[in-house]
Amino acid sequence: PVIDEPIPTTTIVPTVETPTIAAPIETPTTLRLCALYPNATGDDAAEEYVSVENFGTEPIDLRGWSVSDATGKTFVEDASLPIAPGETLTLSREETKIVLNNTSDAVALSAPDGTLIDSISYDSPPIGSVLRLQGSNWVWSRNAPGSEPGALPTNVTPTPAAPVAPASASGVSASHVRVSGTVIAEPGVLGKQVFYVDDGNGATQVYKYDADFPDLKEGDVVRVSGTVSEVRGEKRLKVGKTDTISVVGSTEPESPETMSIADVTAADRGRLLRVSGIVLLRDGSTASLEDHGAQIAVRIGAGTGIEPSVLVRGSTVEVTGILAASGKTLTLLPRSPDDVTVTSPPAAATTAAAITTGKTARTEGDQRAAGIITAGTLLSLLGLGARKLIPAWKLYAKTRALRVAASAAH
Question: Tens digits of per-residue pLDDT, 82-92?
């Protein structure tokens, strides 16, 4: 039967014997452990092996590199042994003299200057099974009897990397993985306790409670182990006390992909994108950009050095950032002032015209209101006067008529 089982999440940090090297060797460090065969079906001494892979883009000479087990037993390659990009090298037990226990053990890979580059531990290995790195997970795969060390059995289909488990109520899932990728946002930029790494499938937020990170910069190639979860629409890798963050190389900082806002979807989560649009509104450190009816949010982090006030309503801006997607809300996270460019400020004439029109409208409205009040006052006064003048006029007319009649009688 085919066996594909995730290894226990317990991590054993092996004792590493530092090789004696006259001076550090300046070479790429894009090597990693990719397979172990500890519990063979036949003779362990003849069949056990450790495989190392070059996942970088440059060849690496294995001279000076070392492999150790949990007891500190160390093998150091003293001859020139180049490993081409994408190539895997299998080191047999006969060559390394390292005995892989059939109960539990750990293997470490160190650079010529003694820096720990990679490590993996295991418990209770199934007989005849190879512990392989597939994607970002380690799985046990049945090794065909009699197969050559390091050869992929013909009756085993490689198991894809395990899907990210949904976050629990505490925000932490049970999926423990190792991620290799390039730093695209340094620690402290988008949060004191986080940095971002792109593993080729989008950015992952790397979180560490004590914020005790190595000195990292954009373009550093790192290997990180931790527990996967999701926070505010972002993939998160939580680094625990026994997890590690190792710098294994460096490359050019990643270039963003230019897209229109209408084309950005939740499927682009984690990608480094560049969009352009008009600032519809801004509320504190969050703004909304619009382009031909499509909208996207922009959130300015406190550690980015970006002044939110640069996002003036009505201005046209170009924003680069990491995309977070929570439900239907798409949010771009710029990393530095270089990620926000104002390409067109608000039209001053239009703004002035709008203000003038508003003032004129207000003045005309005031004048109409004043006219209505004045007319009303005059009508009120006339009404009041009429009520008093009419009786007096009638009395005057009656009195005069009596006087005229009396004069005629005399």
Answer: 899 889 999 99
